[in-house]
Design brief:
With 519 residues, the protein is α/β, with parallel strands linked by helices. Helices cover 37% and strands 19% of the residues.
Length: 519
């Protein structure tokens, strides 16, 4: 069923011919957040164009037979109170409810470690010390660094609104160093470093590559608990679209944009791949910074800067359906972070997994079917798992030029073998799963197809020190063209939503942070 406010391109000729103030290219959470705020707070006429048939980008839910899986919404923090809660509430029109997940919402499994983690600072401190015994001083120094960096983050984020403006020095003191460097400076043992840095799959680069800011922001993000949207991740995009439509805007799917139209250095609209031209005073790009400067509105200098930062990691996704309830499968909603590497051991190259030499070095397993109170009603007697493991797009080079669903059997055979390896690892720690009733597998080529991210990455630009210092803000060198989404701040649901808020502030020249805080 097509969601309210969404129109397929084949039925949208009259809609596209209307007068629009803003065209948003891409219906990810950043694009939808920006559109919803512009439509409701600034009363602008906003049109959102999405190249695929599904809205929401990586927040979408997909169905097969009697199952539904989450592509990217596995848990969300900061939605109990504060700015993230307020901006999501406004954009979703108050139509999303949040279910609180178990307090210890993560389970880290590594050689010699099997630990449930989650909760506030005191809880996290106790959990770390239960394994990193005798490291009280280092634990406190790590947590202090997390708090100091996270407290400085909002000012750094807002500084992105001033092109070429001063950066926030207290934040850069942390963001300019990798997570591994800051943890080592704090005196963390390899064991403590693993306890502090296991969530790197939430932002796309391991601690030896990622900025400490990425680790600090994600750790602080869950100190007030983890939540899950009731009804599944797809409700976020659907309710944002409803907000846009009720404010006079529209979302059109299967409407692929070929380029932004630029005249005398200013964006004046877009042209679709079918030749349709749409005029607008403002164009907002939610296709990622590299895509924006590579093909939407080519800018050689900006493109070179974005490529110098590079992409975050890509992954293999395995989606398992089980004809048993979550309780029968031993699932309680916790996320599993499984690593084959012992603390202090050099990180294994994903290529060993790709070749079949070893099981995946790191495996993430989401069990949100046990977190959503509506899942049992919608899918009685069923459970689903969403799994992810890092793998580079180069492992699939021989099929890169083949279109989706038209690749030779060897592609399917490789996916099947890799999926079996991941499932074997999961079964060791979830012995009650039983037989698999449904299975879907995605590769970085699948992600590239659905997101148009050239490297098949899910978190946009790599969260490195260079990205936090030199990454883009909402402004571009083309007047009237703005960036939105996760590349202008951080990855994930709330990071992308903040990207939308920043873009809306830049376009309207209003302090929407303050306006939302006072609502």
């Amino acid at each position: 069923m097509i969601p309210f406010g969404v129109t397929p391109r084949v039925r949208a000729d009259a809609l596209l011919a209307r007068d629009w103030d803003v065209v948003v290219v891409g219906a990810g959470i950043g694009g939808l957040m920006c559109a919803a705020l512009l439509a409701t707070r600034a009363k602008m006429r906003v049109l959102v164009l999405e190249r695929h048939y599904e809205i929401g980008g990586l927040t979408q839910t997909f169905r097969r037979r009697r199952y539904a899986w989450e592509v990217g919404v596995h848990y969300v923090g900061d939605v109990g109170a504060g700015m993230p809660a307020r901006m999501l509430d406004v954009a979703c029109g108050g139509r999303v409810s949040w279910a609180r997940m178990p307090v210890a919402h993560d389970r880290l499994i590594a050689p010699g470690i099997d630990l449930r983690m989650g909760g506030d600072r005191a809880a996290l401190r106790g959990q770390w010390l239960s394994v990193a015994r005798g490291e009280e001083r280092a634990v406190d120094r790590v947590l202090d660094a997390v708090y100091e960096c996270a407290r400085a983050a909002p000012r750094q984020m807002v500084s992105r609104l001033r092109p070429g403006g001063p950066a926030h020095a207290p934040f850069l003191a942390y963001s300019d160093r990798t997570a591994a460097e800051v943890l080592a400076d704090a005196g963390a043992s390899p064991t403590l470093a693993m306890l502090a840095g296991y969530t790197w799959t939430d932002y796309g680069s391991p601690p030896e590559e990622a900025s400490f800011a990425a680790l600090a922001v994600i750790t602080a993000h869950y100190l007030d608990g983890a939540f899950y949207p009731v009804g599944g991740g797809g409700v976020l995009a659907r309710t944002m679209t409803e907000t846009i439509a009720r404010a006079g805007g529209a979302v059109v799917v299967r409407a692929e944009v070929e380029r932004a139209n630029v005249k005398d250095g200013r964006a004046v609209g877009v042209t679709l791949t079918d030749g349709t031209k749409i005029d607008a005073d403002v164009v907002v790009s939610d296709v990622g910074a590299r895509g924006t400067f590579d093909w939407l509105a080519p800018d050689a200098d900006a493109s070179a800067r974005m490529h110098a930062i590079g992409p975050s990691a890509s992954h293999l996704g395995v989606y398992v359906g089980l004809a048993r309830s979550p309780s029968e499968c031993g699932l309680d909603g916790a996320n599993l972070f499984i690593t084959q590497d012992a603390p202090g051991q050099p990180r294994r190259d994903w290529q060993h997994f790709a070749r079949g030499d070893e099981p995946p070095a790191d495996l993430f397993v989401s069990t949100v079917c046990a977190s959503d109170p509506t899942f049992a009603t919608r899918f009685p007697g069923r459970s689903v798992l969403s799994m992810a493991s890092r793998i580079g797009i180069s492992a699939f080079d021989r099929w890169r030029q083949k279109p989706q669903a038209h690749r030779d059997p060897s592609y399917g055979a490789l996916k099947e073998r890799l999926a079996a390896s991941m499932i074997d690892v999961a079964r060791r720690h979830l012995p009650q799963l039983g037989e698999i009733d449904a299975l879907e597998v995605s590769t970085p080529l699948s992600t590239r197809h659905f997101t148009n991210h050239a490297s098949g990455e899910i978190y946009g630009l790599a969260p490195t020190p260079k990205r936090f210092r030199e990454g883009p803000g909402p402004h571009t060198s083309t007047r009237g063209l703005f960036l939105t989404g996760q590349d202008i701040w951080t990855g994930g649901i709330v990071g992308s939503a903040f990207g939308g808020l920043l873009s809306a502030c830049a376009i309207t020249k209003r302090d929407l942070f303050a306006e939302l805080a006072l609502r």
